[in-house]
Amino acid sequence: MFSEFNFSTAVQCDGVENLYVALKEAPLETDWLCLTNYHAATIEPGVFSRLTNLNVLYIKTRSVDLLPGVFSNLPQLTTLWIKREYRNDSVTFHKDTFLGLNSLHELKISSIELSAFKVSLVNIPYGVEHLILEDNNITYLSDLTASLGTFRNLKNLAVIGNNISELRKADCLTLQNPANYGQFVNFNITHLDLTSNKLSIIEQNSLCNFPHLKCFTVGSSGVEPDNLYQSGIKRIKTLSLQNTGFNIVEICELASHFKVEELLLMFNFIDKMNTFKGSCKSLKKLNLSGNDLTKIEVKKMQRFTNLLELDLSKNDIENLKICTNESMPMLKLVNLNVSDNFLLSVQKRQFECLKELKILSLENNKINFIEDLAFDGLDELRLLNLKNNNLFRISDLTFSNLFLVKHLNLYENTISHFDQKAFINLFSLQDFMVTYDFSIDLDWWFFIRKSVRNMSVKTNILDLRNVFEDEFPLFEALQIDSPNIVANFNVFAEAKELHLKNMVYFENTDALWSPLASFKNLEKLYFTGHPLDVSNISDFFYSMENLPSLKFLFLHDTDKIIKYNQINIIKVFKGLSHLKVLHLKNSGIDHLDSKDIFSDLYALEFLIIEDQIVQEIEPIVFDSMPNLKYIYFLQTTFPCSCKFKGLLSWLESTMRVSIIGFYQQECLINHVRINFIFFLNNNCQSDLDFIMFIVSFLCTLLFMCISLFYESIWWYLLYMIYTVKCWLNRKLQDKDKYEYDVFVSYNTNNEMWVTEHLLPNLEQDGPPFFKVCIHNRDFEIGRDIVENIMDSIYKSRWTISVITRSYLQSNWCSLEMRMATYRLLTESKNSFILIFLDKISREELHYYYRLSKLLDKKTYLEWPDDEDKQKLFWARLRKVIAKSGRQLK
Do 586 and 612 contact (CB within 8 A), yes or no? Predict the structure, then answer.
């Protein structure tokens, strides 16, 4: 869109309140910035300074104060437009508002009172050449020019849509310097535009300050041409009097008085071409379009001896008489435009006196007959436009001798017959546009195949199977508007651009397996479906993968075709790895929910979605396009749904892709349109954002609790898990029956005491004989250690802990003691016995809180060194174990 202006990066900001924040997202290479609907009270100095490459700045603002230096550090800014948005707003300027704009060439100020910025005009940057003031309530021209002083660089001054009703003698400014008092102020202005003022009076010498004027424009006013003669202007190269309302003008008198070369009299009420007063020798271009002319008289045309361009379009001309006989003097016309009139025919040698004519435009008339040799004499003609007439026959002599014609437009006619040699003399034809009936003979195509580069064809059925013998060696672009297409497209193999419109059936006779296989060099493809047809042309869509050079793809009105025939969208864009621009207009592709849709579009930079109801867009769809820069939604409808919240979050987080105008996008709910961003922010926050907040909060809280209470909570949780598991295992069993009498918890350093003393005294000395469980002998191999410990404790009537210093320092021993303690508490049974092998003081046990508390409540045994006391030790231990009975399984 901006390529014709040579812009590289364009940014638009709408509804901005914090300009610093908004411009942080703008790329540093931005050279075109449009700021609309600005709300803040001021624009601060240096706010744009980050964008040092800025070339054009457009500001449409509400009430704002443009502080001094606001445009500082913009070394490349050449164009600045400032416009007030509403009448009741006020924009404040300062003397140094434009300070630092050393490269500025064009300044436009719209809808702001002159009094608001008059103080700034004194310090307009020296390099400004174009000053445009629009709708500024300027009453007299001198109110403005008095502020311009002797500013020498200003070339173009446009005062448009103001309240200037008269140019007064008082508007002629004189120098105030006493040494030169009485001399006129001499502006270097060459172009003065007073369009859309109420100008009706021009007094004597009122434009004395513009002696260098080359172009003077007065439009949409009531001024009469005669008033211009006393303005003080001596010579004007271009005089434009558009839409002024007069119906009589002496063209040659006006031209000779000001030595006019270009006279523009468009959209008035002129009904006669008056040329007898004065001289038209200086006139080279005359534009009379949009008037009431009904005929062109030969004698009046003879006055235009040096005229090169004549525009008679949009009049009521029925008969064009320019060259009537051989004695008619030759005219120098190069460009003649008679389009949008009521011409019915073109007569023999009608343009014979226009030997220099290169462009002839006759489109949008009623021409139904062209006499043979009608264009005879147009030896230099390059372009002939006959579009949108009523032509039905082209004979062998219609275009005879047009050897140099490069552009021939016969589009939108009703041609039903071509003579075989109708184009035999068009050796130079490059661009050819034609509409014809399908039943006519197509042999005439043979004569244009060697030169034609661009061709546009509209017909009922395009059948080109047996027309061409050789390829078109210079062919570049093909446009076809036809429902049925059958052709050997190998002859267009060099084409780089293909337009297909209203297509229902497409067959490439040269490539049965793929309709587009012949177009190996194609770079641009435009496809517009038939609005009322749903024919299955899925083979055409799937064959786009055979276009390895395709860079631009436009799909229009394919919604019915895609939905009715259930075309697989994922296959449509396969293989298009060089595509840079994808434009989808009413395409029917409304669910962008899979990363596979655009999986091959590695080079895509621009995605345009237009005139479409978009049902779903998932950000993942853009992941396969690493070079994507811009997404445009034009006249696109979104349903108001929270499923687009992910798209908004992605847009806010990514710096790589810009969705142009998305913040102004509307969504539809119950036939009511509301701002899409407003809806998403106010109705879609509670789902994902709130859940993520709660989950994050709970995870953080849990982590803190585990960190703080690891020692006290972890074992409870672990014990609880295995307790439940053991409870479930024993639920079906008799809880009063045990597999062991005793489970012994000890450290491996004390294993000798257990095997040499404890086991013999419990298992071998009897009766009764006790069944003992120890881990080295009785734990199930391959089973989880904790599960073995828990099962052994719950399968034993008693748990004995052999306490030593090494036992207290062991994690596994500590676990066994904890499990036994928790069982003691939960079952309220006396099932735990403590035996101290080492002499450990209470002070040492103070660091083991649970064991210390247990000793305060339970009687424990200490291993004596004396052998007699050891016998008493075993007797006491056996008595305790035997006391609860022995009901083993």
Answer: yes
